[in-house]
Amino acid sequence: MDQHAEARPRVVLGVAGGIAAYKACELLRLLTESGHRVRVVPTAAALTFVGEATWAALSGQPVATDVFTGAHEVPHVRLGREADLVVVAPATADLLARAAHGLADDLLTNTLLTARCPVLFAPAMHTEMWEHPATRANVATLRERGAVVLEPAVGRLTGADTGKGRLPEPPEIFAAAVRLLRRGGLPPEQALDLAGRHVVVTAGGTREPIDPVRFIGNRSSGKQGYAIARAAIARGARVTLVAANVALPDPAGADVVRVETTEQLRQATVAAAGTADVVVMAAAPADFRPAVFAESKIKKVDGAAPTLELVTNPDIAAELGAAKPAGQVLVAFAAETAELERAVANGQEKLLRKRADLIVVNEVGVGKTFGAEHNQAVILTAEGTRVAMPELSKDDLADRILDLVSDRLR
């Protein structure tokens, strides 16, 4: 066996029998092209949607279809034991039920029972099936046992139906799988340290309309908030993502609430925070809004610019801090353009005023932080600790922030 092949992360891709099975082909391509060694384990029903030859050609590996093929290698035990990650996409209501009840009536469920690595389920089914109490109970059971079960996406289902139950897009399932693999070497209690927790994350920049075609806004891309949402999902959390004017694909597994204005952001965040263990205010709300909204487009009169009167928007983080229930962790952000020590001083003042547990202070501006793939920050705690972060990818900074959050929850 090629030593390089042995060194590659070993992934078992389970495919259950739903129409979304064809999307697993793209997920398989993403996994193999990024250097993972993938064995596909389709159910018998899955093979009616995508044939064995397709899985073999895309994976470059033999396809395991039942417990009797290659019985001398004991595949029903070996595949699970040797895997670094098991991903089931799509995971149908039937597959989730069998996994939750510990059934072992085919190779995929046998593999799930013998796996001692992270397991990721990406459900896909009709809305009524996802919302049925039996499915909800099965999902809760799997999550309690340490599996990561993504929330389905909302969108077009089979036929003319639309609703929650659509398979998350393959690139987002892939991103969740890679994050799980990165934490796979940790003990389960560390890797899934947010299991059973509800995490609310805000992201993006709000827009305050001036007239039907113009608005006041900012440069926030939402990338840091989305990275935090993905990191929380990979750590087992149920995530509500309140997204303000973000042009990014929905993170697989998050419940996404889309808003435009600061008041809409406030309403959605306050509503979600009522059941949250953690609230991360990574969005950039506009501090001001026009006092009056013009019902029609403002016209130039003799080339003169109009006068725009502004009023102050509510401070959402301060409102949440004032009403924060016992045990909830509130993380605020401070976007600063001042030099470091002045920025940290400003952040300290905001931390106290907002009654937050942590505040992430970062320098922003043209070409800095907004829209970039990396971020550099200083994290301040309510106890007075100062944690300076070097320049990191936004994914890595997200995990550093959640490490501190997890410590506080414990």
Automatic annotation (TrEMBL):
<keyword id="KW-0285">Flavoprotein</keyword>
<feature type="binding site">
    <location>
        <position position="297"/>
    </location>
    <ligand>
        <name>CTP</name>
    </ligand>
</feature>
<feature type="binding site">
    <location>
        <position position="333"/>
    </location>
    <ligand>
        <name>CTP</name>
    </ligand>
</feature>
<feature type="binding site">
    <location>
        <position position="350"/>
    </location>
    <ligand>
        <name>CTP</name>
    </ligand>
</feature>
<dbReference type="Pfam" id="PF04127">
    <property type="entry name" value="DFP"/>
</dbReference>
<dbReference type="GO" id="GO:0046872">
    <property type="term" value="F:metal ion binding"/>
</dbReference>
<protein>
    <recommendedName>
        <fullName>Coenzyme A biosynthesis bifunctional protein CoaBC</fullName>
        <ecNumber>4.1.1.36</ecNumber>
        <ecNumber>6.3.2.5</ecNumber>
    </recommendedName>
</protein>
<comment type="similarity">
    <text>In the C-terminal section; belongs to the PPC synthetase family.</text>
</comment>
<keyword id="KW-0479">Metal-binding</keyword>
<dbReference type="GO" id="GO:0004633">
    <property type="term" value="F:phosphopantothenoylcysteine decarboxylase activity"/>
</dbReference>
<dbReference type="GO" id="GO:0010181">
    <property type="term" value="F:FMN binding"/>
</dbReference>
<feature type="region of interest" description="Phosphopantothenate--cysteine ligase">
    <location>
        <begin position="199"/>
        <end position="410"/>
    </location>
</feature>
<dbReference type="InterPro" id="IPR005252">
    <property type="entry name" value="CoaBC"/>
</dbReference>
<keyword id="KW-0456">Lyase</keyword>
<dbReference type="InterPro" id="IPR003382">
    <property type="entry name" value="Flavoprotein"/>
</dbReference>
<comment type="pathway">
    <text>Cofactor biosynthesis; coenzyme A biosynthesis; CoA from (R)-pantothenate: step 3/5.</text>
</comment>
<feature type="binding site">
    <location>
        <position position="287"/>
    </location>
    <ligand>
        <name>CTP</name>
    </ligand>
</feature>
<dbReference type="InterPro" id="IPR007085">
    <property type="entry name" value="DNA/pantothenate-metab_flavo_C"/>
</dbReference>
<feature type="region of interest" description="Phosphopantothenoylcysteine decarboxylase">
    <location>
        <begin position="1"/>
        <end position="198"/>
    </location>
</feature>
<dbReference type="InterPro" id="IPR035929">
    <property type="entry name" value="CoaB-like_sf"/>
</dbReference>
<keyword id="KW-0511">Multifunctional enzyme</keyword>
<dbReference type="InterPro" id="IPR036551">
    <property type="entry name" value="Flavin_trans-like"/>
</dbReference>
<dbReference type="GO" id="GO:0004632">
    <property type="term" value="F:phosphopantothenate--cysteine ligase activity"/>
</dbReference>
<feature type="binding site">
    <location>
        <position position="354"/>
    </location>
    <ligand>
        <name>CTP</name>
    </ligand>
</feature>
<dbReference type="GO" id="GO:0015941">
    <property type="term" value="P:pantothenate catabolic process"/>
</dbReference>
<keyword id="KW-0460">Magnesium</keyword>
<keyword id="KW-0288">FMN</keyword>
<comment type="function">
    <text>Catalyzes two steps in the biosynthesis of coenzyme A. In the first step cysteine is conjugated to 4'-phosphopantothenate to form 4-phosphopantothenoylcysteine, in the latter compound is decarboxylated to form 4'-phosphopantotheine.</text>
</comment>
<comment type="similarity">
    <text>In the N-terminal section; belongs to the HFCD (homo-oligomeric flavin containing Cys decarboxylase) superfamily.</text>
</comment>
<dbReference type="GO" id="GO:0015937">
    <property type="term" value="P:coenzyme A biosynthetic process"/>
</dbReference>
<comment type="function">
    <text>Catalyzes two sequential steps in the biosynthesis of coenzyme A. In the first step cysteine is conjugated to 4'-phosphopantothenate to form 4-phosphopantothenoylcysteine. In the second step the latter compound is decarboxylated to form 4'-phosphopantotheine.</text>
</comment>
<feature type="domain" description="DNA/pantothenate metabolism flavoprotein C-terminal">
    <location>
        <begin position="194"/>
        <end position="406"/>
    </location>
</feature>
<keyword id="KW-0210">Decarboxylase</keyword>
<dbReference type="GO" id="GO:0071513">
    <property type="term" value="C:phosphopantothenoylcysteine decarboxylase complex"/>
</dbReference>
<comment type="pathway">
    <text>Cofactor biosynthesis; coenzyme A biosynthesis; CoA from (R)-pantothenate: step 2/5.</text>
</comment>
<feature type="domain" description="Flavoprotein">
    <location>
        <begin position="10"/>
        <end position="175"/>
    </location>
</feature>
<keyword id="KW-0436">Ligase</keyword>
<dbReference type="Pfam" id="PF02441">
    <property type="entry name" value="Flavoprotein"/>
</dbReference>
